[in-house]
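LAB NOTEBOOK - FOLDING QUEUE
OPERATOR: T.R.
BATCH SIZE: 2
PURPOSE: Compare the predicted structure-token outputs for two unrelated chains run back to back under identical settings.
PRIORITY: normal
REVIEWER: second-year student, initials M.K.

ITEM 1
FIELD SEQUENCE / FIELD STRUCTURE:
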Amino acid sequence: MLRKFVFFQLLCIYMMGPSWAMSTDLIDFTCRTDKECESYENAKCLNLSCSCTARGSNEPIECKPKDEKLTNIIGGPCPCSQPHSVCNMAQQLCYCTDGHVPSKDKRRCISEWVSLDMHCETMRQCQLADTFSACQATQHRCLCKENFEQHLGKCRAVLDISCNTDADCKGNDYSLCLQSVKKCACDVGYVQDRNMTACAPGAVYGASCSQNAQCHVHLGAGSMCLENSCACRAKHYHSEKQLPLRPTNSSSCEPLVPYGGYCRRYEDCQLHHMDQQLKANHTTNMQCRLGECACQDGYVAVGNEVCVPRSAGALAPKALLLSTFLYILSFITAL
């Protein structure tokens, strides 16, 4: 009798599975003030969560958004009260102004790039301003990486050579003496060689190299030295798009457009700057919807990473549920 009961329960779960497994709703109910709950019908902020009531009776009910959307702040409906945000009048949605991007919680617009010693929240903020800087975890400031020191607002590669004046570094081309650490350092556009005793020039995309740092000079942290030639890392592509604080003739290795990534327009979710071969092998099938790159109609997200035709995407959760159900059933019958 117990086996039959468990079997019936599992069968019910399996039959219900595809409906909840395919859910793609991304609604944020957390809040700090009533204003953050304005996107829901008749809602107030109670115990740090948006709580909704029925009109007239004030009976608690499930919160439902006034408009279908993916976030309840950036990408949500106007008016836009956040600093550095602007209302797209055609769409009546809030976006960050140029030079700003949403914070991780989508409640604020933060600077897209951050200079050395300034407050940061993400690694990319620092690296867009200086490739050899990083967002320090405890201080939340952009600081130079190991073996690099700040000089005149830039991170300079430090050599393993002591000095008192620039003359002490004369034998090492393109170097100067950093008085803060009393060591020779490379000029902008150069990095240490593997022995830390000389300066090596930065390399552009496809140019000869002996270490990753040479590629980072011009292509950014998304690059690497692969078989003695500068290339882009996995999930990055070569872009000719101009970036802040980069030379006008430079290119870079940019991250592939992520599912759920921030966007202002349709083009932000496409790979216009990718080379033709890579573009052919990486079809995004995404569109900009409510401030985020989402799957186009007829496509569904798999693993929150890629968009596949809905018919193909629906097979994955069903197959997983079926295999799990059969495995548990075989275990029960063996009892």
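ITEM 2
FIELD SEQUENCE / FIELD STRUCTURE:
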Amino acid sequence: MAAWAKRLAGVRGVLLDISGVLYDSGEGGGTPIDGSVEAVARLKRSQLKVRFCTNESQKSRGELVRLLRRLGFNISEDEVTAPAPAACQILKERGLRPHLLIHDGVRPEFDQIDTSNPNCVVMADAGDDFSYRNMNQAFQLLMELERPVLISLGKGRYYKETSGLMLDVGAYMKALEYACGIEAEVVGKPSPEFFRSALQAMGLEAHQAVMIGDDIVGDVGGAQQCGMRALQVRTGKFRPSDEHHPEVQADGYVDNLAEAVDLLLQHAHE
């Protein structure tokens, strides 16, 4: 236990991934992971600050929060850092008018964005809308631009639903990068700016926070590159090979969020 005390000493805030840590999405909205509802409640009763940091791009923040509340979680919209609002801010600041290759569920986040005469492409986890026709339309638009801009809400390879593993936006992002000979701008994990915005919302420095996620690269690696500590849960998209990743090593591996919270509440203030 002394090792955990050293790893978690001085933690003042916790960033929580949602999908694969709190719940697995799927039919009927999904299923909470065992112990996660009470684990979040225990964190919120503690002195630790809590922020939910997600790459969810099939739902608006409001829809996601309503779903999580139905599943029993104590969560509010202003506690969630998500990529769509961050992308909208970038679009406004840079005067960009996007062609949207996104899921209908997240489209309301872009209601105030001018999409006429597009001069960039914004893509998210579009699910079944990742058809050849839609991908080709985005490809053609990018190829017509003198300075093509591709913005992706995350670059995850896959995620976990109750029915199994599902391809994520990163696979389709890489296809457009390859076809167009460009590099996408990623808004969301593992982007350093995304983690910094979550830390800023918590009023904490990176060394005071720990990230808990199921993605060894997006959650763990991204957080560590920003100076945070990071734990990987063995739920969601976790694979045993993650513990032997050639580039990223978590500060600790735990079976689930409940175990992580037990350790945090025991050692964070030591």
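REVIEWER COMMENT (ITEM 2): The chain is about 35% helix and 20% strand.
FOLLOW-UP: none requested
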